[in-house]
Specification:
Layout lengths: L6 H4 L10 E7 L2 E7 L2 E5 L4 E6 L4 H9 L1 E6 L5 H8 L8 H4 L4 E2 L8 E2 L4 E13 L2 E13 L19 E5 L2 E4 L10 H18 L1
Antiparallel strand pairs: 1-2, 1-5, 3-4, 4-9, 5-8, 6-7, 8-9, 10-11
Length: about 200
């Protein structure tokens, strides 16, 4: 395996693919959106979800002003919208009218949800940290929007035979992967394999 100490030369894309979130922000009557690959869940109780945004982005300024956002997840056939909001600036255009992006109202905050998302979170910012060249906004999830057909009713997990999430590979490349089947590996399965190996080892001794 190659080792590269020059991070820029290495590419810093090794942790991809990820499902990008289209982060929508609102300040006054102004709306903006950006594509965010750097996001993560942080906590179940309370439900916390964080997005990392460069302070160079117009959305970052708006989010600091208003303190709320929606995180929207789109399918592979919507990568045009993801790329468009990711590579243009709200300082220069109204992305929603330019790209004809449709929204629906949120239930707990003023910032809307994207109509074409298969899932979305309504978030209110509870913490903010400057980390290197990005700002990490930690939002408490106040409501979850999701299309029921896209998720298993019992497990609550995505049904990849019903939805093809957009995957970001880094460097402006995207992919869409449909399910080739799924497998569940539970704690019991893992522990069973561990105990099985121990038993075989003891028998040999």
């Amino acid at each position: 395996m190659r080792v590269e100490k020059d991070i820029e030369k290495a590419g810093f894309y090794q942790y991809y693919p990820v499902v990008p979130a289209v982060v929508v922000v609102k300040s006054g009557d102004e709306l903006d959106a950006l594509a965010c690959a750097w996001h993560t869940a942080l906590s179940f109780e309370p439900p916390l979800f964080a997005v990392a945004i460069s302070p160079k982005r117009y959305s970052c300024k708006m989010l600091k002003q208003n303190g709320e956002f929606t995180a929207n997840f789109l399918t592979f056939d919507n990568i045009g919208i993801i790329a468009a909001v990711g590579r243009t600036s709200g300082r220069e255009m109204d992305k929603f009218s330019t790209y004809r992006i449709k929204t629906i109202p949120s239930t707990e905050i003023q910032t809307p949800v994207l109509k074409d998302s298969y899932a979305a979170y309504e978030c209110r910012v509870v913490k903010r940290y400057t980390l290197g060249d990005h700002v990490l906004f930690v939002g408490e999830i106040l409501a979850v929007h999701y299309k029921e057909r896209c998720f298993d009713k019992k497990k609550k997990t995505p049904r990849l035979n019903s939805v093809t999430p957009a995957l970001y590979l880094g460097a402006d490349y995207y992919a869409g992967i449909q399910s080739f089947g799924e497998v569940r590996v539970s704690k019991e399965d893992v522990m069973g394999k561990v105990m099985g190996r121990r038993e075989r080892k003891n028998n040999k001794e």
